Amino acid sequence: MRIGLFITCVNDLVYPATGVAVTRILRGLGHTVEFPAGQTCCGQLHANSGYRRAALPLVHGFAAAFAGYDAVVSPSGSCVAMVREWYPRLVPDTAALAARVYELSELLVDVLGVTDLGARYPYRVTYHPTCHGLRVLRLGDRPLRLLRAVRDIELVDLPAAGECCGFGGTFALRNAEVSAAMLADKCGHVTGTGAGVLTAADNSCLAHIGGGLSRTRAAVRAVHYAQILAGTAGAP
To answer: 33 and 87 in one domain?
Structure first.
């Protein structure tokens, strides 16, 4: 299968190791993974802020960059949700392409039929299901099924896992006090698990929660689950 990697802005600029992990996983399964250099922001920031017309050139740019791929994969539930939910509404001609855009766990579990990637990670880990993945993409237990197959991992449940961490893109900026209160609750639940690693499907949320944990000097490291599955996460 010829797969296009949609890295997203946050991963490209701040967390490139996550994109490397996704590429390593899929190439290890025998698939061709390419990084279209013409890709840019998906336009989520614009659309969520009410500037939908300003997002249109980005939608068209995405369609041009990823045309012709059997599938497009991204390690970001929120950006995949933008493409799948909003692109067909903004530009109807993108509907067929949007249907071929997957968050990593969807591609692995639903399309490729893979849950065990042979990874090993002998640490205590807890998983946060991010809002877009949980409520828009409805990822369900797909990321957890992949994590449960990791050798020697100690995967512990996160209390109130379905509660938002308070990031929400511009929400954290426009509603800073509410966001901080939500973050404090989430950090308390994370540290209460005794896990040394917090993982999720979105580095934006991991950055938000990880920042809160670091400010309280909690001994918890935030790591994208793709890096655990690829064997590149390192020790907590």
So the answer is: yes
Kindly list the distances between the CA atom of residue 40 and the CA atoms of 35, 46, 96, 155, 226, in Å, as whole numbers in the listed order: 12, 13, 20, 35, 21
Q: Convert the pLDDT of each residue in 115-124 to its tens digit.
A: 999 999 999 9
Q: Which two tokens stand for residue 126?
A: 């807890």
Which H or E run includes 125?
Answer: strand 124-127
Q: What is the pTM of this model?
A: 0.93
The region that residue 145 occupies, defined by phi over 0 for left and psi between -120 and 50 for alpha, beta otherwise, is alpha
Whether 90 and 139 map to the same domain: the answer is: no
Q: Is the pLDDT of residue 137 over 90?
A: yes
Domain count, the chain: 2
- Domain interval for residue 162: 124-230
- Report, in angstroms and rounded to the nearest whole number, the Rg of the chain calculated over CA atoms: 17
